[in-house]
Amino acid sequence: MSERDHDYEDAGLVAGLEIHQQLDTATKLFCDCPTELREPEESSRRFTRYLHPTRSELGELDDAALEESRVDREFEYLAYDTTCLVEEDEEPPHRLDEEAMETTLEIAQLLDARPVDQANVMRKLVVDGSNTSGFQRSTLIATDGEIETEEGSVRIEDLLLEEESAKRVEETEEGVRYSLDRLGIPLVEIGTSPDIRSPAQAREAAERIGMLLRSTGKVKRGLGTIRQDVNVSIAEGARVEIKGVQSLDDIDDIVRTEVGRQLELVAIRDELAARNAAVDQPEDVTEVFAGTDSGVIGGALSSGGSVMGVRLRGFDGLVGREIAPNRRLGTELSDHAKRHGAGGIFHTDELPAYGVTEGEVADLREAVDAEPEDAVAIVADSGETARTAIGAVADRARAAVAGVPEETRGANEDGTTRYLRPLPGAARMYPETDVPPVKPDRSEVETPELLTEKVGRYEREYDLDRGLAEQVAYGRRMPVFERAVGEGVDPTLAATTLESTVTELRRDGVAIENVSEEQFAGALALARDDDLPTGNVGDLLSALADAPELTAREAVEREDLGGASEDEVREAVREVVERNEEQVHEEGMGAFSGLMGEAMGALGGQADGEAVSAALREEIQKRS
Amino acid sequence: MNPGDRVRADRGDRTYEGVVLPSSTDAHLVVKLDGGYNVGIDREAASVDVLAEGVHDIGEARDAEGERSAVEFDDELPTIALISTGGTIASTVDYRTGAVTARFDAEDVLRAVPDLAGRANYRGRVVANILSENMEVPIWQELASAVSEEIEAGADGVVIMHGTDTMQFSASALSFMLETPVPIVFTGSQRSADRPSSDNVMNAVCAVEAAKADCAEVLVCMHATGSDDRCALHRGTRVRKNHTSRRAAFETVGSGPLGTIDYDTEEAVFHRDHQRRNESELALSPALADDVDLLKFTPGMDPALLDAMAGKSGVVIEGTGLGHVHTDLIPRIEELVDDGTTVVMTSQCLDGRVCDRVYDTGRDLLDAGVIEAGDTLPGTAKVKLMWALANADDPAEAMETSLSGELRRRSTPWA
Predict the structure, then answer these.
(1) C-alpha to C-alpha distance for A557 and B155, rounded to whole angstroms
(2) A-B interface: how many C-beta pairs under 8 angstroms?
(3) What is the CATH number of the domain that holds B111?
(4) pLDDT digits (tens, 9 = 90+) for A54-96
(5) Per the CB < 8 Å rule, is A426 touching B36?
(6) Which of A74, A158, A433 sits opposite B99 (nearest CB)?
(7) Which residues 232-271 in chain B show a CB within 8 A of chain A?
(8) So which residues are the signal peptide here (chain A) (predicted)?
């Protein structure tokens, strides 16, 4: 279904984006710890906490927070030698990190957004434990920006600077375990207005924003460092927030599929209306399955559980109707059952199957008085879970009668989405009194060169072909490239090393991500100074990948990669010339290119071409 | 235009719409936008229209002085008096300054800490509404009287909510002023009550459990660790705030705490000797000498500081090491003593006992008439001297005797 393109104007598609990007600053947003990710095993201390709901500054208690806190969950936190008391909520936050503020103002400039006169740090209530404080610090830095796409401009509503949350490690018996390494890394959030009208425009807008962000050279790269949320609605549908689109390439698919899903739900709604559909109260149908061969149902019953069913009047054939690739209305019902702890549902559009017999289906229909045009959904689980889950299923089925429900959904890898939770209410926010307001200082902010501009300049000034120029400019080692070229390294050598060589090494299983910017720059500088034959650059990087503590020069010495000495070159060249004395005698300099290859071969790539060629010229001259 | 009004501010080519907040300054109008974010808008550069007046009632703090709160009574439960003096545990955001200030009364604390419900019948009472750095001697006396009244009226235990900065001084003061048949438990919080992670809930719950326990002493009940797992119960005269911000800032100096309250099981466990319920009769001796000072000696100290002590009835010196000051200061100290000032020596080592018989300086100090406070903490010694000068027949002897567990005869830090 995602293959089919819809008439988006006709459908009344309205979409907006929310893009979260981690900044690559030296220290965290509110303390002086490094922004370094760690493995849970490296943690050196741990502690546990509870969170309690609080009144907002206007005296209101947050219902959602209250709801959440009723479940008495214990949060465990892993701390490291790279985290401090601020992450543990044991020390007030330090002042807002200046580097993060500068980068955010740079981003504001690129988004054509206007910074506020005075930025006020806020606390956004979050009681799921992902922030030790129970809130996320978030600051509105700029508003009213705009980016261009082929289908028209997209307004930027706001640019926020926030702290990244703690990473969820796993569920524990009492609650959740979180890791503090990520907590406090600066994060910008860019929200667009709902100006997007097609899947292609959504993708283009996201790509444009991504390009602008990377143009600063100060954003983190790699998995999880950028997260994209998409809000989608159609005229007859409802606002749906889709969280956690990991890849830019998926955005158009996600929007297309969501439009299709909403259109299908609208069609189902119309069909249900025509059939006068309704949803009954759930009832216990355990008896129907007393002697069942179904593994799922039998398993639930044998551990003392029950089977709850609900008659869906007028739903026959519609529960099994596909609304997105491999997802049916039944899948939506099942998502709701799962959120309430059940494994899923069975419904009559797919039965008999899964060990449920035709006879049992007939008995089930009879048990709930279902007519042929009705469908029946069932949940088998422990009594309490089965009851709450079937209630959620019935609620979702009722929503189908009304049309498309507003909700928060999560992006699946295949471009479809799944139900996560209801839309959040307005965020509960109150001022972060521990951090004084900041006046954004725009005087120091430079406008960075855009990546699109960089590509042009690399082609023009460095003579790189377009493909390589793009690879370098958009690649994560662009800052190393610029630094190396600035230090006099040949641009082609720098570019091929940072892209082709690195790709080959990675393919060969070298842990190239261990090589630091400093080591890359060092390796290229050695090549520039002829202290490293270009043929050895790959070997050096490979050695550095295993020795993060060494400088490039130390690794060259340890691995003996410095190449042939001047004497060795001279010796090798002399041998080649002597072996071909006759040819030299006859052809003079004409023999040069032939012998050059032989000499390079004899040195096994351990010598710099220029040094060999100089020595060869000299030796030929001596003899001709 | 007033706080609570809904306004539209035009600023250059932007328009902000929202509710005016009292944290606005002369330079910046602070507006809460519909999304919840606050922004400061340059007043001079913006033109502002009021769209609607008083959309939000951001009212002033209620004057809670002396207010008594009524709570439903359950015969099965003990009665605990909750006395508020202000501090972080009962604080909220101040719109004017943007800072955190104390402004809840005891009933508000009950409302803010629903977990307290069902543990006891509460009698709420507000003695003061101050940040604890603003604590003063008359408030100690008022507090002691209030506690005494509550016990007399049948309270089975007393919980005092207090700012953490000077909690140890107030705990000492009550330790000397009161003889008590029931627990008197100080508690507070290191992280303000307006955040979900505040330690106030667990501290308050554990303090109430401590007030129900069988330990009739003045205690400080605060987090034992950085986790929300248990609170330590410190003897009021041996406790000290040893960290500016951590939850587990309070420590018993020279030994471990008397006991702990497990947050999960609510169980009180005592590891050290303590006074049981009803071993003492209720007695109140609230008189305090208000001209006592604590003087910390450090190298380079201006001798004039000692001159400024002339005429005071008492001075506690926080000396170096075993209890020393610069030799040149000894004659001045001798003059003080001769003029009738009681001079008491403690050590800035905090841990350990002063002993002025080991070195010449010490012997000279003793000869000058300085009284050794043993291993009494300097802050505790100051409060004790204030009390001793007003209540003891022989203040010097009192300073060398343990009155409320503040001075130990045996040095057994491992015990």
Answers:
(1) 80
(2) 128
(3) 3.40.50.1170
(4) 654 444 555 555 545 444 689 999 999 999 999 999 999 999 9
(5) yes
(6) A433
(7) 244-247
(8) none
